[in-house]
Write a structure and sequence with these properties.
288 residues; alpha/beta; eight-stranded parallel β-sheet; four-stranded antiparallel β-sheet; 11 helices; 37% helix; binds succinic acid
């Protein structure tokens, strides 16, 4: 089931959601066996920012019925740290690399896109304008005009295909997707997490160090499927669908709703080999 994603050839349609699979840690744990049986057909990095970030204070996770709330806050080594430490290891993966970036301003986003696009190891760039745990990201991606301004600003700075990661926390995700397409995006991916909160049962105060977080997992799948369907109907560029996918049947549902590719997120935490299983199940369903 070969896929052409914005001119990049993939051996299949199964990706990881950004930040849900640490390929460097997995390589340490599983050695070269990871490369021989890599669970995804393209790998999406954890989102990087220009400056290093510590991320949000703990606790950062809370389990909900059929889901997870995270308030991670984009901890990362920053662009230079990513280039120095992570990129050489990610370049050894046997699949195309998609680097996810998030800027606190259009200029920051522009620098990230330009510098990432200069690296041969980077096949595509994902603009994360949808992180619910960093205010600026979500504000940019919740509004069609703001999203368009961000994409228009970065579009001339690279020839790498640009994927815009959409938030479900927008009044009209299809309008944001259309604005991104008109501004020059080559693909959109959705959904990022839905804003949520949990209370500490003892103190009745917010459990998460960041107060609120983003809900993912099977609990959000029906919402994600609807949004993928409405976005796919509104745009002509490829849609990467995600949100609670845990089986080949779920993946096939997202593709029937209009997704060209699917991404596995929360399920990777339960089963690091989920991508392999889901790709095999999907292959059986579509007869390849
Ligand atoms: C996080 O690091 O807070 C999650 C990333 C995201 O939701 O985009």
């Amino acid at each position: 089931m070969k896929i052409d994603l914005c001119g990049i050839q993939l051996a299949g349609p199964v990706l990881n959601g950004s930040g849900t699979f640490d390929a460097i840690a997995a390589r340490r744990a599983f050695g070269d066996a990871l490369l021989e049986r890599f669970p995804f057909h393209a790998f999406v990095s954890k989102t990087i920012t220009l400056a290093p970030r510590e991320g949000n204070p703990p606790p950062r996770l809370w389990e909900t019925p059929a889901g997870l709330i995270n308030s991670i806050g984009l901890p990362n080594k920053g662009l230079e740290g990513f280039f120095a430490h992570d990129l050489p290891e990610l370049a050894e993966l046997p699949v195309p690399l998609i680097v996810s970036v998030m800027g606190f301003s259009r200029d920051e986003l522009g620098t990230l896109v330009q510098r990432a696009g200069e690296r041969d190891e980077v096949a595509l760039i994902e603009l994360n304008v949808s992180c619910p745990n960093v205010e600026t990201g979500l504000v940019m991606g919740a509004d069609p005009a703001e999203t368009a301004r961000a994409v228009e600003h970065v579009r001339p700075l690279t020839d790498r295909p640009l994927i815009v990661k959409l938030t479900p926390n927008a009044t009209d995700p299809a309008a944001v997707a259309s604005a991104a397409e008109q501004a020059g995006a080559d693909a959109v991916s959705l959904i990022n997490t839905l804003k949520g909160m949990a209370l500490d049962p003892r103190t009745r105060q917010p459990w998460l160090g960041g107060t609120t977080g983003g809900v993912s997992g099977p609990a959000v799948r029906a919402i994600a499927l609807e949004q993928v369907g409405s976005v796919a109907a509104a745009v002509g560029i490829p849609v990467i669908g995600m949100g609670g996918i845990a089986s080949g049947r779920h993946a096939s549902d997202f593709m029937s709703a209009g997704a060209a590719c699917v991404a596995i997120g929360t399920e990777n935490f339960r089963d690091p080999a989920a991508g392999l299983r889901i790709a095999a199940e999907l292959g059986e369903r579509v007869g390849v």
